[in-house]
């Protein structure tokens, strides 16, 4: 399932603008883009980020998780 930015924001309990700030800061995966205006996040990646935030990981640990999720996406493995 793919989520829109407002859906990701609702799941994380933040504003849409915060979602994009998190992407910019490396705390959230970049969305999948298709065309100029279409971008969505795989729900599996958001679930992994949610679990990490709930467990209290540091920002550096969250950035590492995001790098791993993006590498898995690039390799076609997706989030586990």
Question: How would you describe this protein?
Answer:
The chain has one domain: Multidrug-efflux Transporter Regulator, Chain: A, Domain 2, CATH 1.10.1660. It is globular, with a radius of gyration of 12 Å. The mean pLDDT is 95. It is α+β, with helices and mostly antiparallel strands and 80 residues long. The chain is built from 4 helices and 3 strands.
Rounded average pLDDT = 95
Count the DSSP helices. Answer: 4
Write down the Rg: 12 Å
Write down the CATH class: Mainly Alpha
* Strand segment tally: 3
Secondary-structure map:
Blueprint: E1 2-3, H1 5-12, H2 16-24, E2 32-34, E3 38-42, H3 43-55, H4 59-74
Helix pairs in contact: 1-2, 3-4
Structure characteristics:
80 residues, alpha+beta, Multidrug-efflux Transporter Regulator, Chain: A, Domain 2, three-stranded antiparallel beta sheet, 3 strands, 57% helix, globular
Concise account of the structure shown:
With 80 residues, the chain is α+β, with helices and mostly antiparallel strands. The protein contains four helices and three strands.
């Amino acid at each position: 399932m793919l989520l829109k930015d407002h859906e990701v924001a609702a799941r994380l309990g933040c504003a849409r603008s915060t979602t994009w700030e998190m992407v910019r800061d490396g705390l959230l995966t970049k969305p999948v883009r298709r065309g100029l205006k279409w971008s969505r996040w795989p729900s599996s990646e958001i679930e992994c980020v949610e679990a990490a935030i709930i467990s209290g990981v540091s920002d550096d640990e969250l950035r590492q998780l995001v790098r791993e999720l993006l590498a898995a996406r690039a390799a076609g493995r997706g989030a586990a």
